[in-house]
Design goal:
Distance between the termini: 65 Å
Strand order of the largest sheet: 1-6-3-4-2-5
Structural class: alpha/beta
Mean pLDDT: 84
Largest sheet: 6 strands, mixed
Oligomer: single chain
Length: about 600
């Protein structure tokens, strides 16, 4: 490596271009960073500190050869956040100077922002290949000649109009937010107190940096990874992305690999948009959610064939798998293909087969995503027509039964990851020609903490277990909805309707009134402790408030008006006590055993 201490104007000299490689994280500086930089520059301007301000190290690598027009391209390995921020600030100063009539000074800044004698991508001093909206925002800012920015806006200059009108909402990008921050500071605070010509000279001629140019034989990604090991923490999916795209830059299939990776990222943007209902307006938060979703997918993908991988080992395992494939493009195509299955597992509404989407929805309501490890391979078999849709549906029915029965019996879910990690491998060793039969046999053979609870244990738990617990309430609502839709039917549920308006209702209330204590008798406290949170004492209602702590005879009138099959049961019940709760629980157990059968 070659290192030298130089000024920013020497670094951004004519016909240099600095390319931000795909393995770099997106622009991520926040207002705190912008404020610190601007304050330091103002302090130099005001003479409060000495000039010669050090802005850090920028590591690059010459990306030979020169372009046909003589541009010298460099890959930015480290320092892109500072470079982008400073050039955004220079753009604001340039535009203000031009607006103020100091065209000569504005033109002087411009030659450090663009290569004015060049065209197309060579025109830009800093170039973001394949960065989508970030690049378009930056391109708009640095290439603007100033006229459209300040014209006819008097003192309230603002270039955001054309950006805000863009349907892609440029204003949400952090690049735009940085530009807007500097623009507002100039407009509201600095215009009458700062000599912008002097500020321009400070930035270009007095800011010092250490420029390190890596040798051509050095691996830029490894340098980046080591330099950033103590910096802003990257999600494992970011590290995998960086590694794959860095490797692709050395591959003859670079374009195909990059395209395949972009398809994968696009898929998870779509998943995030539909799954994430919180802070949809926060681009950074949404990016973080996407990264976690992608990491979770990678973790499921790595374990689908029985490999034991912890969540912390996802990055290491993925790059080992990637390096082991001679055909990198083929490997990426497989990753993308399995992501299509994963999308449908996560977003049941995207599954065209109603028989399958129904179960994918069930698993989502049960928070039963652990089975996705196993289902990736099952969906692949279905996609290749190696199993029928009917067999796939029966497999899903068995998995739901397995989860529900274990939930009632109280077997820990902690082992499910290990079970589904190995299940496909176990099936293939048993009978890969008949997946459904092999699955039935394996589930019957499971014992101990892997066991598939028998009917008698399932019934006993339904009757006596306190199922209304903090962690189970979403699942409990789903279970009651499934029971409701299956009452008075002799076939599997096909057209269940689930409603967000329904809530779980205690028939015998949680707070016993005098009337309830009288109706239950002297043992009211023991009866409440034993039966209150069991399934036999629970139902669904569209509105809990009118029911509240009413006596059973009054509740019965309200239940009678309900359209829910589950509440028709109470039409012929006169009293509600321990005996009637237990009797109803056994009748619900009969239905549950039919809905969630043994293998």
């Amino acid at each position: 490596m070659k290192a030298s201490e130089i000024t920013l104007c020497q670094f951004l000299k004519e016909d240099n271009q600095f390319q931000i490689p795909l393995f770099q994280r997106r622009y991520s500086w926040h207002e705190k960073n912008w404020q610190i930089l601007l304050k330091d520059l103002i302090d130099i301007h005001n003479g409060d500190v000495k000039s010669g301000y050090f802005i850090g190290t920028i590591v690059t690598q010459h990306n030979y050869p020169k372009t046909v027009h003589g541009i010298s391209p460099f890959i930015v390995i480290d320092g892109q956040q500072r470079l982008i921020t400073i050039t955004l600030l220079l753009s604001v100063i340039r535009d203000f100077l031009r607006f103020s009539g100091n065209v000569e000074c504005a033109d002087d800044i411009n030659k450090y922002l663009v290569n004015s004698s060049q065209t197309n991508n060579d025109f830009y001093k800093i170039f973001f290949p394949d960065r989508g909206i970030e690049w378009r925002v930056y391109q708009h800012i640095v290439s603007n000649d100033g006229n459209s920015l300040w014209k006819d806006l008097d003192l309230d200059f603002d270039c955001s109009q054309s950006i805000h009108n863009n349907k892609t909402r440029f204003s949400e990008t952090r690049v735009f937010k940085a530009f807007r921050f500097f623009q507002e500071k100039v407009q509201q605070e600095l215009r009458n107190s700062i000599n912008f010509s002097r500020l321009k000279d400070i930035i270009l001629h007095e800011l010092m940096l250490v420029s390190i140019v890596a040798d051509n034989d050095d691996n830029p990604y490894l340098i980046f990874e080591r330099l950033n090991s103590t910096g802003l923490k990257l999600d494992q999916s970011d590290l995998i992305r960086n590694y794959v795209l860095m490797k692709s830059s050395l591959s003859p299939d670079k374009e195909e690999i990059d395209k395949e990776w972009r398809l994968l990222e696009k898929k998870f943007r779509e998943i995030e948009e539909k799954i994430n209902k919180k802070r949809w307006y926060d681009r950074d938060y949404r990016s973080e959610v996407r990264g976690k979703l992608l990491t979770q997918y990678f973790w499921n993908y790595l374990r689908k064939d029985g490999d034991s991988v912890t969540e912390k080992e996802v990055y290491k395992s993925m790059i080992e798998k990637f390096d082991a494939f001679s055909d990198k493009h083929k490997y990426l195509k497989e990753l993308t293909q399995f992501s299509n299955y994963y999308e449908r597992l996560c977003l049941p509404q995207n599954e065209p087969k109603e028989e399958l989407s129904r179960y994918f929805y069930y698993f989502s309501e049960l928070d039963f995503e652990t089975c996705h490890i196993f289902l990736l391979n099952i969906y692949e078999l279905y996609s290749l027509s190696k199993i029928s849709c009917e067999d796939f549906e029966n497999i899903l029915c068995l998995l739901e039964s397995y989860f529900i029965r274990r939930l009632f019996v109280g077997i820990s879910t902690n082992i499910l990851g290990k079970i589904f990690n190995n299940l496909y491998k176990e099936i293939c060793s048993k009978d890969s020609a008949n997946i459904l039969l092999a699955l039935r046999i394996i589930l019957r053979e499971y014992s101990g903490n892997k066991s598939f609870p028998q009917d008698k244990d399932f019934r006993s738990a339904i009757v006596s277990k306190n199922i209304y617990t903090t962690g189970n309430r979403k699942r409990l609502k789903f279970i009651l909805e499934r029971l409701n839709s299956s009452i008075y039917r002799n076939t599997k549920e096909k057209d269940s309707i689930f409603s967000d308006n329904l809530t779980v209702e205690h028939i015998m209330p949680q707070a016993l009134t005098y009337e309830w204590r009288e109706s239950l008798g002297d043992s009211y406290n023991a009866i409440s402790n034993k039966w209150l949170h069991t399934l036999g004492n629970l139902t669904l209602t569209a509105d809990n408030s009118p029911l509240s702590n009413k006596v059973f005879t009054e509740k019965k009138i309200i239940y009678k008006e309900s359209n829910l099959n589950l509440n028709k049961y109470f039409n012929n019940i006169d009293n509600w006590n321990a005996d009637t709760i237990e009797k109803r629980a056994n009748e619900l157990a009969d239905i549950a055993i039919n809905i969630w059968p043994m293998p």
